[in-house]
Specification:
By secondary structure, this protein is mainly α. Helices cover 60% and strands 0% of the residues. The chain has one domain.
């Protein structure tokens, strides 16, 4: 198994946090071996939950109405939809979690 050097991961992550462009940030983070678009959104959401959210197949279904995996081009649209649906004063991560919970309840998924 190949191990990615920690210094490489740190530098790439730091570079991603320097820009204010979600698509460019995802492109940067996914250059790390083993990091796909959904995982890259987790990194952004945990780094700055006020302005970012986790983007995955559940958010694609809940907000875009499609049953598929996240594409890099989807993330800015997801963030816009979450901002537009924010009832006021909540960080995007909180709004995203509410939509995820609603999706789980509606489709009875994620009950392990």
């Amino acid at each position: 198994m190949y191990e990615v050097p920690a210094a490489f991961v740190q530098r790439i992550s730091e570079a991603a946090f320097l820009v204010d462009d979600p698509k460019l940030q995802l492109n940067t983070l996914t250059s790390i071996p083993g990091i796909g678009p959904a995982t890259a959104t987790v990194v952004l959401a945990f780094h700055e939950p006020t302005n970012y959210a986790v983007g995955d197949q559940y958010m694609i279904a809940a907000l875009l109405g499609e049953d598929r995996a996240l594409r890099l081009s989807d993330y800015p649209r997801l963030l816009t939809k979450l901002r537009d649906r924010n009832p006021g004063g909540f960080d995007l991560r909180t709004v995203e979690k509410a939509y995820y919970q609603q999706y789980r309840d509606t489709y009875d998924v994620g009950r392990w």
